[in-house]
Write a structure and sequence with these properties.
The complex is a heterodimer. Chain A is mainly alpha-helical. Chain A has helices spanning 3-19, 41-53, 57-69, 96-112, 115-120, 122-134, 153-156, 161-180, 186-201, 243-246, 255-268, 294-306, 310-323, 336-348, 354-365, 381-398; strands spanning 39-40, 80-81, 158-160, 204-205, 210-211, 214-216, 232-234, 332-335, 373-376. In chain B, a hairpin with a 6-residue loop joins strand 3 (117-123) and strand 4 (130-132). Classes of the chains: A mainly alpha, B alpha+beta.
Chain lengths: 399, 161
Amino acid sequence: MELKEAQKLYDSSVRIVKENQHKKGGFYASPPGTRYPYIYARDHSIDVLAAISAGMKKEAKKGLKFMLDFQKPNGEFAQRYDTDGNDRSYKEMQIDGNGLVLFALGNYYSATGDTDFVEEYWEEILAAKQFINQHHNKEVGLIHTINSIHEFPAYEHGFEIYANSACCGGLFEVAKMGKSLGKKVAKTEKLAKRVKSGIETALWSPRRHSFIKNIRIKDKHSNPLGYDPYSSVVTDPDGAEYAPAYFGVVEDSDPKMRNTARRLHNELWDKELGGLNRYPENWNRNNGGYGPWIHFTAMLAKHYTRLSNKEMADEYLGWCVERSYKYMLPEHITTIDRFELWKEDYSNGHIMRDDKVVMMDNIKKHPMWKQGLAYVTIPLIWPHAEYIIAYNEYRKEFL
Amino acid sequence: MTKAFLLGVNELEKMLGAETVVEWLESIGSKSAEWEGPGIDGEDYNDLNCIHVCPFLGKLNEFVEAYGKLPSSHKRIIDFANKKYAGSEGPIISNVCCILHYAHWKKRAELAGKKEVLHLANKSPITAEELISQEAIKKSKHKPEEIKTLFKNNTCIIKYV
């Protein structure tokens, strides 16, 4: 990996994350005037984690305050907010947002020891935990959701691995903060352990040597689950299957995680472009065409760093550095051929929308188009945040 | 269950009349908005908000297919509501669910600090009839051509003030 370039991308990423925090605390998913000028609970929480990683404690606190102040009355965090904290969701429930906020808060607490802040928001923390608990299914021990990291119910409605790992990680953080503050958190810890056990058994495939994506179930109350109208299992490789280690539910060194990461590399590493695809091509939902994603590649870079595998960490993180354009990172990249194939599928299928037409225009206007590449949504803040986290871990381990 | 709810609306109108059913639907929309909390519904387009697909579209059509036609009770409710809501703010009612849905938007917007929710256009999910409020468009200060263009790909157009 070209270290000077990696450092420049890091510096740029810190600047971009900082610049995209609104004065009221929310981190934009993409800058105002671009494709995602809202505060998405998921992206925002990763930005908070990046701020913690970069030592930007004030920004992290402001970001957490924003989310906790605008929690919904039922304890849920909305899919997305405007800068004033109004719910601007347009998709159904995605419970990983609750797990992510709690996980980020726990990380903030570990980094700062800010007991006053946690005490101040303890009621909101419990409400967020309670919302997760309401979606817990006792039969399988897992948390039910409709959407998760890809906002794609066709593959995520049910007991999905990213949502469960985020919630499990968040619940463990609540238990840790609660114990530190002398609160009664035995039930929270018990719930966290039950979800962990569910992930390690029901979402683990011993024959595939891999975590799996999802147990499709329509209704969280279905009992027994086998008679639910959706009942089936999604076993395809998905970058989200790294989530158990991302959220600290299992160690990166756990053989389950090592084998899962190997499978992800074998099946999702893009042979033409490098970088990690988020899921198989035939899911056909990459706006702008199938191709590797920066933030999934950065997530897995962290895995190899934690295993002290410099060769693989260099390959993953180095790819992110090489694919940046003027030290800015896109959501994902693809080739013109794949872009045209996607365009054909969506146009012929009558599912092309106005906003996607605008997105296509922007892709074609980008200088990389002339080099045969489609850069989709640049900059997106999430990949910068993942890069900050991955680079800091890389630096501590190898430099 | 949604079909059963729509059948229930039919039965309730026969028992209590359109006025009470309209109040009941408004109340459901408003109370459910309190559960959800402050919020702005619809996708942003140049300071307007658009609902791409009516969330009740599928079940409304299934209900009409099962019933054989739109019940006359539903028509009486729609007529009563449109008379009640006549004016620049609206809403425009194309089916009974609009009453509940609009009350839901309005309450969430109110919780978010908005003063008014202008309902500029509504395309019936059952008949595809296009209903436009010229008074609301005038009050919104947007051009009718802009609404016409947006209406091609949306079922409702709203302006939050």
